[in-house]
Amino acid sequence: MSEFDAPPAAGNGLLDRRVFLRAGIIGGAALMTANATALEREKWMQMPGAGMSESGAPSGHESHIVRSPIGSQPGTTGAGASRTPLQFLDGVITPSRLHFERHHSGIPDIDPAQHKLLIHGLVERPLTFSMEALARYPTVSRIQFLECSGNSGTSLASEPVQASCAQIHGLVSASEWGGVPLSVLLEEAGVKAEGKWIVADGADAAMMSRSVPLDKIMDDAIVALYQNGEPLRPSNGYPMRLFLPGWEGNMSVKWLRTIKVLDRPAMTKDETSKYSDLQADGVSKLFSFPMGVKSVITSPSFGLSMGAAGVYQISGIAWSGAGKIRRVEVSADGGKSWADAALDAHVLPKCLTRFRSAWRWDGSAAVILSRATDEAGNVQPSREVVLKGRSSAAFYHYNGIQAWRVGADGEVSNVYV
Amino acid sequence: MSEFDAPPAAGNGLLDRRVFLRAGIIGGAALMTANATALEREKWMQMPGAGMSESGAPSGHESHIVRSPIGSQPGTTGAGASRTPLQFLDGVITPSRLHFERHHSGIPDIDPAQHKLLIHGLVERPLTFSMEALARYPTVSRIQFLECSGNSGTSLASEPVQASCAQIHGLVSASEWGGVPLSVLLEEAGVKAEGKWIVADGADAAMMSRSVPLDKIMDDAIVALYQNGEPLRPSNGYPMRLFLPGWEGNMSVKWLRTIKVLDRPAMTKDETSKYSDLQADGVSKLFSFPMGVKSVITSPSFGLSMGAAGVYQISGIAWSGAGKIRRVEVSADGGKSWADAALDAHVLPKCLTRFRSAWRWDGSAAVILSRATDEAGNVQPSREVVLKGRSSAAFYHYNGIQAWRVGADGEVSNVYV
Fold first, then answer.
1. What is the pLDDT along chain A (417 residues), one digit of tens a residue?
2. CATH number at residue B144
3. Is B46 on the interface with A (CB under 8 A)?
4. Both B333 and B397 in a single domain?
5. How far is B1 from chain A (nearest CA, A)?
């Protein structure tokens, strides 16, 4: 099968996803015209290389792959965010060094030998847990995403901001999170019948505090101790954080210090001054916990350039707070027609899922989109639908479809469709 | 349910794995006798913390979690290995900085702008691929283990070596590996009918070279470009390596430079002087490709200490080159009785799988073991069975059951059973 008889899957060059398993359609390689064995022996083959090390580092040739932008609010230390460079990554695991950050008063330098977790409030037995005590408890690990509720808020601007995928959508990452089910610790403390919520406090100077319904805690909340196999990084809550799969990131309180069982939400500063959603009618939705179904094409995206016309891979990530991703569709004609993308084999609940489509770009301007559907049947909405009924001051929970325009010059820009 | 009515699952204190979902059995926490809200406000809550960074680092309190030992053969640079500190990790993902290393002449410092992959030999069209050309091709990612065929060779010693889990078993790691199916590139080059094998050469000074049957290549081999989401680390083959899921690690040739299609194996220095298995009858098995079914308890293990008698988690990893792990059994009485361990939810093919058991340690000496079974029905053998028929000079492919003895003093030692 050649490029020219690959079956189309949708308009403007989207190819059947099975094309990726066939030969002869890409043409990106250079044919050898000379003696095929005449590769030069490069200088790095002519002497022994570097030795082993205790802790490896990325190649110096990839030093541009860092979190960005690093933004603190004026006059503060560490009240701001840094973002995952999605446009340079593949797969779904985010290296821990590149996991996004969002802090309210910087990263506390906690001594794990002194740190304790207190469980109190409406319980039979108030308990404290040292790190040593927690190490005795059962642990579970799961590979799941974490997304800041403010992610993609840039897309609310009246005109599309020309910025990288990291800058617009980089407040989402995925890791293997390991820790002790909070249900086990709460059962050990004995929750009283009137206990319906908890409030979790962090040990940072802002004492970040959020209320969580007890049902969620007993379902799948963990006190996370591990991220991608090793102890949490300080920027992700070392030595322990709350982790609430699929829910807005700020509720997964970092540097977790106390859990208090209550009969109602605590109405903390962090859930009244922030993290509520103002509607067009002036009423604020106070608790918007799960993150909506969402996807974004990471390649090509703003800042990356296409080469010559020909077959390319369109690749991106999809996720949903409701469970697994069932389907991702891609369009190369601005949404007039859609084709199913291929999904990498590990489609896990409340995790990023990598999707890929084959696209024969004809070298003219085109608008590419992706649209995710989760196992609950939720379909990622258009920007227009997301904005409907929201106040113009509302900021959180933007999950609209991202459109990228590929110009005839191969440059990619952010557009609204 | 208290510790005392938790149902037993096997001898010497192994508890039903459902115990992990129940309350009140661990007793590791300290009851608060004073005012439960009277936690001291630690010093790190009294001032703003550190700001954001482009690339995060582990906590300084965890600086002992490094690869070890770092061993080069005398008089060489980078001909040796460093090992993953399994005893300090949880889950299955290995942070890329801690992925084991095994080099034959160190880590070459390759300029990706100059590096090319050549495909030649029994093909219609010899091809070279620059990094830019490869970026056009379809990519897949999978979370899979990589194990050096020499892993656990320490267990062949006539007396059990007193060494950490890293030192004995740390030449295995798991990552999300992403790259281009080699089948796609070979089909583009057009493999001739007589092509049955390939030989892959690396761009290191040792020009590490291995022969691989074409069937494996067309099944699931990739030219890996990504590890845990970001470009490969130099110690893992940057900018590209061969990756052969489930097969002995040295065949996943790092710094991949050429693929030559052949009608038979190339019989390279690396597959004749090394990586063949001498049998007791003097005949050497030349090609032992898949890694056998295997497991090891990582906690408790040598170098870790138990506290007071009580309920503990036994945790470890299991894997098989044949596919998924179906079952892991744990014994706390030296193999007289066994109980099924709980497996973390993400049981993926040719990947590490994390297992966990609850154990009520009565404070007396005990020998703990784990035994894995894969989806093909292969059961991890005893040490005795592994050794049967092998020459005492044979070194590779040890997958026998690891036994740890927990002493009455809580110290853990390596024993043979």
1. 344 456 788 888 888 766 654 545 555 565 554 445 557 888 999 999 999 999 999 999 999 999 988 878 887 878 999 999 999 999 999 999 999 999 999 999 999 999 999 999 999 999 999 998 898 889 999 999 999 999 999 999 999 999 999 999 999 999 999 999 999 999 999 999 999 999 999 999 999 999 999 999 999 999 999 999 999 999 999 999 999 999 999 999 999 999 999 999 999 999 988 888 888 898 888 899 999 999 999 999 999 999 899 989 999 999 999 999 999 999 999 999 999 999 999 999 999 999 999 999 999 999 999 999 999 999 999 999 999 989 888 889 999 999 999 999 999 999 999
2. 3.90.420.10
3. yes
4. yes
5. 10
Number of domains in chain A: 2
Question: Which amino acid, one-letter code, is at A313?
Answer: Q
Please, are residues B180 and B142 in contact by the beta-carbon 8 Å criterion?
no
Q: Does A69 touch chain B (CB under 8 A)?
A: no
Residue A63 counted as domain residue: no
B404 lies in the same domain as B269: no
Least CB-CB distance to A45: which of B32, B39, B204?
B204
Tell me, yes or no, whether A136 lies in a domain. yes
Nearest to A270 by CA among A212, A208, A213: A208
Chain B environment of A70 (Cβ under 8 Å): 51-54
Chain B nearest-CA residue for A185: B23
A170 & A243 share domain = yes
Q: Name chain A contacts of B136, Cβ cutoff 8 Å.
A: 26, 28, 307, 310-313
Q: Is A170 on the interface with B (CB under 8 A)?
A: no
Q: What are phi and psi of A165, to 5 degrees?
A: -60, -40
A53 occurs within a structural domain: no
Residues A320 and A396 in one domain: yes
d(CA A304, CA A411): 7
Nearest to A319 by CA among A273, A365, A350: A350
Complex-level ipTM: 0.94
What is the value of pTM for the model shown?
Answer: 0.95
Give a yes or no: residue B313 inside a domain.
Answer: yes
Neighbours of B22 (CB within 10 A): 20
Domain of A306 in residue numbering reads as 294-415
Claim to verify: residue A252 and residue A331 sit in the same structural domain: no
Q: Which of A251, A279, A307 is the last residue of a domain?
A: A279
CA A223 to chain centre: 20
Residues of chain B contacting residue A192, judged by C-beta atoms under 8 Å apart: none
Structural tokens at position B401: 């059951």
Same domain for A122 and A149?
Answer: yes
**Where among B251, B285, B319 does a domain terminate?**
B285
Report the C-alpha dihedral over residues A387, A390, A395, A398, rounded to 10 degrees. -40
